[in-house]
Write a structure and sequence with these properties.
Elements: E1 2-10, E2 13-19, E3 23-28, H1 34-50, E4 55-56, H2 67-70, E5 79-86, E6 89-96, E7 103-104, E8 106-109, E9 130-135, E10 146-147, H3 166-173, H4 193-204, E11 209-215, E12 220-226, H5 244-258, E13 259-268, H6 276-291, E14 295-299, H7 303-314, E15 323-330, E16 337-343, H8 360-368
Helix pairs in contact: 4-5, 6-7
Amino acid sequence: MISRLVLNHFKCFEHQEIKLAPLTVLAGLNSTGKSSVLEAMLLLRQSREQYDSALCLKGPYVDLGTGMDVLCEYSNDDNIGIHLYCGEQQYGGWWSSNQEGAILPQTRAGGRRGNQQECSLFSRQHGSWLQFTYLSAERIGPRTSYAISPERMDEDPELGRCGEYAAQYLEKVANRDIPIVQMKLGDDGVMAVQTCLDEWMRVISPGVHLTVASYADIDMVKFRYQYPRNGVQGREYRPVNVGFGLTAIMPVILALLTTQKGGLLLLENPEIHIHPKGQTYLGKLMALAAQNGVQVIVETHSDHIINGIRLAVKQHDMQAENGLIQFFSDSVTTNGISLDSVHIKEDGKLDAWPQDFMSEWEDSLMKLL
């Protein structure tokens, strides 16, 4: 797994080392660097797919403009450094920001690269299950129908950065067993992706059942919801006629359920449109994935997701050392950002409470009293 990320002169970071765990929560105030952590990793992935050594700022994962757009405002160095560490291997490098375009040339090497398959950020699955997934906060909303991926789903399965291919992917794997049996929620013994997905989705919307069918002649996929009662399937509802939350969360749950051990998930604000109970269960699902070999890095503003992770630790669904909360805030230090590492204890309690961390509920309650 990826153990740490080091950023130099990148966006809001003059110099910052961010430690990563099997499950890392990026929390904190707005515009304090949480998304920049994910973007730095995505830049390495994006660049490796398209170039040998250059840093590609525009591509399928992120579009960050030009070199000067990503250079730290307070830096006295024109070179941007992004390095991540996976075991004993180091990946990344230094690139010149003094460029008008989106392709930054490398100025000096970033260390031993090793085999890219040794790092989950660069590995490809070439099979039935997802190995690397990034789901942005800007996920696709309810539609009457959904597009089919231009790539062959057999060779490089994907959900799309906005979850736009989730319906097609679900149709492909619906009857296959989930790769990690510990992530089964129900006790009926059925391990099929469709069944397990329904079980977790019912935490969001009780009784829901998902159906999907593709139409290759028009390159579209039909996605519908049902609410069976008394053994009767019931009518099909278009996504536009149910809540936004179901469509927004389905790709997140599907990615968690179908990522193999050794895979990597980067998730932005997965709690969008989801009620508190559903957010808490989502935290538990992330914890189960991390405990069983999937690395999850999630940016969130949800206290409920964090509490769900803490409950998973207390209930022995995840070992405490597998979780880490990185809390970002403004600072008067020279690099402009303060980063506090908050660890989860075995009883689910936290070892630190930085200022403004999960405090709004208590602050508001005190004012009401």
